[in-house]
Amino acid sequence: MAFTAAIQPDAATSRVTGSARWKPDIVAELAPVIRNDAVNAEYRHLVVSCSDVAAAATPGQFFQLLCPHPAGEQPFLRRPMSVYGADPANRQLEFLYKVAGAGTRGLDTLRAGDTLDIMGPLGVGFTLDPSWRRIVAIGRGAGLATLAPLALAAKRKGVHVTAILSARRPELLVSVDLFRAHGADVISVTDAEQSSGPTNVERILRQLIVEERCDAFFTCGSSRLMRVQQRLAKEFGLRGQIAMEQQMACGIGLCHCCVRDFNVNGEIVSRRVCWDGPVFDLSEALP
Amino acid sequence: MNAVTRATMVDLSVEVGGLALRNPVMPASGTFAEGLERVIDFNLLGAIVTKTITRELRAGNPLPRIVERPGGLINAIGIPSQGVPYFLEETMRHYAACDAPLVVSISAPTAEGFASLATELSIPGVAAIEANISCPNIEEDGKAYAIRADSTEKVTRELRNATKLPLWVKLTPNTGDIAEVARAAEAAGADAVVVANTILSMAIDIKTFRPCLGNVMGGLSGPAIKPIILRQVFQCAKAVKISIIGCGGVSTAEDVVEYMLAGASAVQVGTATFLQPAAMTTIVSDLGAFCLRREIPRVTDIVRGVVIEEADEPDLAWVNPRP
């Protein structure tokens, strides 16, 4: 399809009927690709140039990407992708993705100079309570990409981050250097080293809580780790936030396909991950 | 004459089922909500059409609710609704500042339920009622009122007696003779028919051997269905005199032109908005540009303008544009 950019209606329509005051804060635009490189055996790092509005994305927010069609495949819908980095000064956006299906296989075909149709920034991201001085970020797999920009935001607010990064194998851990660059203490756990199980992660977290290094939990990418944190948060009276995933179509709350159930004070309520989230209160999340 | 002056001479306004619209482009019910106004200016739309409202709270169908296929999307959302009180308090207030007419889509399990909901929602601020008598997900095995002419006539008549507002009836493509159903809606007092809803369909995951949708079946939408719905608009246009609103796979201004030539006075845009959130407003401006290019002064001039008989001398001046 030939649509580009946030709508700038021309000619007959907008001049007569449009509202002069109206401005979009979500845009769909063709973003030139700056680079699209492999970072390890599974993950690719995509950097695009974008508008001010898109580059204003905050940690935990996401974009809907209209992925190119790889050979022989026709991904129809956009694909949600969390923001790995947003740089308003240079008007750039970064995404970290794993090639897993037709959409990401399409993304993998992009080369510098190509354009990618991006739509965003979307959703409710992470928030840092001013009273928090030390937070713990726990992510697994692609969830690490979602948490990485949080570490930078925390650093800028003078909040110390301890990051527990989980993966199947050590070489598949992503963002370790990035978290360290943002001043975080990094603890890596992997399936291969048998350190990523909930029991060991709970042991680490209890230690951090005892050492007063955890005012709040931030997590993404694992239901098992989420449950550990929920239990500890309740036990120690701590707060937390979780970035959740769900299959999406529109990304802006129109279609109600990405709903999940949440436990709000004992009552089960349905919320749209794309619009009400993707970041939710840890205590209300259900696996 | 410069381009701007000429462009403003194209008249995109249409009369549809008792409403005067500034242009023929509006959302399809279920694919529009408040969030879209952070991407497009609602005042550029011909009308606003709400998600289908039911009297009671409805949770919707089990997940997964959508599956993509080449050229289309199968959904089994199942009309999640926050009920009438929420609509009256929140949704109405939200759209109050918008000057595009507000069309409220309604659904109920019985004809009497449809009628009482129409009465309750016939209030200032609501410009028309769209009766969704065609959702394939809400009733057993995909059956809906609009599958048959007699049930369409019954529910439409109840609705007609229940409201003085313009009444639009949204038909289903999942019927043997949609023209007969449209005729029944017209006979019972509908001001317009929306042709049509999604096409009942199914997808199976060959890894798990299970249906892709939690509801097993769902409704296909998107470019894949446009030729089918276009045919149904054409058939309905021959059967009724009331307005027809085309709805099925509209993604571009060219699609709108096709629908209008087939007999639609306006169109609804649904799935295209999921891919391009500004699809509707882009279509409006592209439609103006099309008319300008073809020197068509009023977009309504092309409604029912498809030229079928070669022997006929087309009476539309712009069928053979100057080179």
Q: Describe it for me?
A:
- The complex is a heterodimer of chains A (287) and B (323).
- Chain A has 287 residues and is α/β, with parallel strands linked by helices.
- Helices cover 22% and strands 32% of the residues of chain A.
- In chain A, strand 9, helix 5 and strand 10 form a beta-alpha-beta unit.
- In chain A, helix 6 packs parallel to helix 7 (223-236).
- Chain B has 323 residues and is an alpha/beta fold.
- Chain B is 30% helix and 18% strand.
- In chain B, helix 5 (178-187) packs across helix 6 and helix 6 runs parallel beside helix 7.
- Chains A and B meet through helix 1 of A and helix 1, strand 5, strand 6, helix 8 and helix 9 of B.
Q: What is the topology, as strand order, of the major beta sheet of chain B?
A: 3-16-15-10-9-8-7-4
Radius of gyration of chain B: 19 Å
**Count of helical stretches of chain B:** 9
**SSE sequence of chain B, one letter per element:** HEEEEEEHEHEHEHEEEEEHEHEHH
Shape of chain B: globular
Count of strand segments of chain A: 15
Q: Low-confidence parts of chain B lasting 5 or more residues at pLDDT below 50?
A: 1-5
Structural class by secondary-structure content of chain A? alpha/beta
Helix content of chain A: 10-25%
> Which percent range describes the beta-strand content of chain B?
15-25%
Sequence stretches where pLDDT stays below 50 over 5 or more residues of chain A: 1-17
Distance between the termini of chain B: 19 Å
Indicate the radius of gyration of chain A in whole angstroms: 20 Å
Give the largest interface pair and sizes. A-B, 43 and 54 residues
Q: Report the principal-axis shape of chain A.
A: globular
Strand order of the largest sheet of chain A: 4-3-7-1-2-6-5
What portion of residues of chain A belong to β-strands? 25-35%
Distance between the termini of chain A: 37 Å
What string, H for helix and E for strand, traces the elements of chain A in order? Answer: HEEHEEEEHEEHEHEHEHEEEE
Oligomer: heterodimer
Number of separate helices of chain A: 7
